[in-house]
Amino acid sequence: MSTTHDAEDARTTTTHGAGDARTTATTGPGPTALRPMADDLGLRDRCHGAAPLTARLEPWLEDVLARPDDLAAWLAEHGSPLNLLHPGAMEQNAEALLVAADAHDLDLGIFFARKANKGLAFVDEALRLGLGVDVASERELRQVLDRGVPAERIVLTAAVKSASLLDLAVRTRPTVALDNADELDALLLAAHDTPDPVPVALRLAPALGPDRPQTRFGLPADAWLRLVDRGGQAPGRGGGLTITGVHFHLDGYDAGERAVAIGQATELVDALRERGHRPAFVDIGGGIPMSYLDDGDEWERFWDAHRAALSGDGPPQTFGGHGLGFAVDDGRLRGRWGGYPYHQTGVRGAWLHGLLAHPVAPGGPTAADALRSRGLELRCEPGRSLLDGCGATVARVAFRKPRDDGSWLVGLEMNRTQCRTTSDDFLVDPLVVRPASADGGSPSPDPVADAAIEGHLVGAYCIERELLTWRRLRFPHGVAVGDLVVFPNTAGYLMHILESASHQIPLARNVVVGRDGVRPDPIDAAA
Ligand SMILES: *Cc1c(COP(=O)(O)O)cnc(C)c1O
């Protein structure tokens, strides 16, 4: 067994707070029961799913959760919700990948996919760690250059590249991942009078079999070779461009598919080298998996409970019977979860190890051999998995109200674009902490503040189904106005990829958690 697994295992975090041993009765104390001392409760005791999905927590977040009054003060100053950024875990996340590549005798270049979080603290940390940065737009590129990241450590993968972005790239010289013939022509135009050729990586759309729809990213190898061979206005032919590598980016997390893609990328490298070009790396893009949950059984039990609920055999797990991708059709439950696999086995280092040990074709060399035998550097562009453990989103409870089915709506000062990706839902249990300022601490009678309730989190957009998570949650010790709901591990995409300022509600502020409190991330001051 390689050391990669050890590197992953080393990131074991405390998963429970001090009150772990106490049972969280779902019925809880009645309205007249004595209010439990806040100190008696473990970090997770105030909220969990009807079928729990227990988040992995980094020590920095456990520390913050144990200081609810500080947290309340930060929200009082910066507003609700508040994004907490903490880049500390990036180092161990990157290290796991480096160790895996090293075990296969490969050099690995890690380029942090910045679109996963806009916080500049993560760019600064990538720079400090000697990582590169993958940028997806003109402003991302400008900001990353302004933070001092050298151009040779930047790859520009923007899916659409405007003329002004290409001009900036020609002037500042990051590696440009070229997607298509029109983009090639636009870059040749932008670069026609540069003294030094602009470094480009050809973006390959690998052929992954008849059942796999072609990726939108890149062109097939033969299409690239036709462009390279057309003479005159071709990449690497006097036109101001030089081919430095081959890149691809696939959706999903399948290591086997990526091994096949590496095989095709190395064949394209061979064909380019035969033509006198000198590509030196294969960049496998993003999609390196991570887990939000430690417990795979819990993940299975959640889906069992949810399917049972949809089939009428158990209590509801979601609001209004939302199927999370499943539906009852003709008496049979069909569908599949299309969102992020919140529990996965084989993440980061272990996943990369499996990929590199995988043959590029049946009976063929391993992906590692295919790269090593050609002296190629391996590059990757992790976004989400590099930010694992690097953030949380905190929002203040504004109201609680009962529904006529006995469940409750808990309204947060937050909207659903502030913890959401393009997939259906955030399936991890939020945590609830109670600062002294919460109304639960006031002498006026407030039975709900301490009584066990069940219900749903709703947000600020004026939409009937504005749910912050579809999952039904239990609050065994009640919810008070002023309680803080903490969505753990939101740095990768969840904070920013869909956030909107609709209703003229400002975007959430982003603060970096340090030893002495929080400081604003400079991104909120950027134009
Ligand atoms: C989004 C993206 C990434 C990052 O993907 P993750 O799944 O977050 O690792 C990397 N490269 C490219 C080109 C992307 O578009």
What does this entry look like structurally?
The chain is of the alpha/beta class. It folds into three domains: 27-86 and 389-526, Lyase, Ornithine Decarboxylase, Chain A, domain 1; 89-289 and 341-380, TIM Barrel, CATH 3.20.20; 296-335, no CATH class. Helix content is 26%, strand content 18%. It is built from 13 helices and 20 strands. It has helices at residues 3-9, 59-65, 68-78, 90-103, 120-128, 138-146, 163-172, 181-190, 221-229, 255-274, 296-310, 348-357, 367-372, and strands spanning 48-49, 82-85, 108-113, 132-135, 154-156, 175-178, 198-203, 241-247, 281-283, 326-329, 332-335, 377-380, 391-402, 408-412, 431-433, 453-458, 473-475, 484-488, 509-514, 517-520. Strands 1, 2, 13, 14, 15, 16, 17, 18, 19 and 20 form a ten-stranded mixed β-sheet that branches. The chain has an eight-stranded parallel β-barrel with strand order 3-4-5-6-7-8-9-12, surrounded by five helices. It has a two-stranded antiparallel sheet with strand order 10-11. Strand 10 (326-329) and strand 11 form a beta hairpin. Helix 1 (3-9) runs antiparallel to helix 4, helix 1 runs antiparallel to helix 12 and helix 10 (255-274) packs across helix 12 (348-357). The longest helix has 20 residues, at 255-274. The two termini are 49 Å apart. The model is unreliable at 1-37 (pLDDT under 50). The chain binds pyridoxal-5'-phosphate (PLP).
The parts where pLDDT drops under 50 for at least 5 residues are 1-37
- Tell me what the CATH architecture of the largest domain is: Alpha-Beta Barrel
Number of domains: 3
Could you tell me the mean pLDDT? 90
Helix content: 25-40%
Q: Which percent range describes the beta-strand content? A: 15-25%
Beta strand count: 20
Bound molecules: pyridoxal-5'-phosphate
CATH-assigned fold name of the largest domain = TIM Barrel
Shape: globular
Please identify the structural class as seen in this structure.
alpha/beta
Count of separate DSSP helical elements:
13
| CATH level 1 name of the largest domain | Alpha Beta
Distance between the termini: 49 Å
CATH superfamily of the largest domain: Alanine racemase
Main β-sheet description? 10 strands, mixed
Alpha carbon gyration radius = 25 Å
